[in-house]
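ARCHIVE CARD
CATEGORY: sequence design from structure
SOURCE FIELD: tokenized fold
FIELD CONTENT:
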């Protein structure tokens, strides 16, 4: 399977804790130290991770998932569906899950996504930037890419539409 170092998830957890959030980190095997102020749940398997996330999700205001890009298995697709039904709180939570699960965007790409990158008519996202430590950078691959939207992602974006700035996920 495609392994993850955990660096992105740990960086997100640390940043959230530094911003004052109560953070629960569900982590697969890694040698990374637990960030200060973060509660950590260690798991060894994908099934254990799914169970741990399902356990803490009802208490969460927001859930951020980071992991390796890989071909989704039937179990992963089933977990995403269950998560959307019960764990994604509110419109913004559902939008985050769909941007990651349906469109395959990385967290930095989600944070940098602008309304001008969203074509609801063509149901297509243009991914051209990433945000890292408050700075706009190139995507991990260094190239612009076009990503098709599922109908449910397009619907979530329509429901989330706002005029508070150019970014889809207002900071």
């Amino acid at each position: 399977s495609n392994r993850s170092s955990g660096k992105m998830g740990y960086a997100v957890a640390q940043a959230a804790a530094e911003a004052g959030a109560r953070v629960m980190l569900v982590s697969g095997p890694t040698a990374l130290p637990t960030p200060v102020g973060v509660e950590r749940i260690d798991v060894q398997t994908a099934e254990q991770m799914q169970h741990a996330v399902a356990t803490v999700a009802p208490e969460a205001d927001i859930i951020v998932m980071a992991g390796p890009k890989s071909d989704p298995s039937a179990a992963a697709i089933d977990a995403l569906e269950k998560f959307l039904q019960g764990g994604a709180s509110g419109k913004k939570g559902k939008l985050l899950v769909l941007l990651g699960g349906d469109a395959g965007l990385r967290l930095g790409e989600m944070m940098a996504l602008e309304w001008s990158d969203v074509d609801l008519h063509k149901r297509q996202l243009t991914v051209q930037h990433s945000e890292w430590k408050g700075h706009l950078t190139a995507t991990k691959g260094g190239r612009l890419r076009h990503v098709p939207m599922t109908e449910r992602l397009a619907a979530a974006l329509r429901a989330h539409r706002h005029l508070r700035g150019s970014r889809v996920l207002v900071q």
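CARD ANNOTATION: Helices lie at 7-18, 46-56, 74-86, 90-101, 107-112, 151-160. Strands lie at 23-27, 38-42, 118-119, 124-127, 130-132, 135-137, 145-148.
SHELF: design records, drawer C
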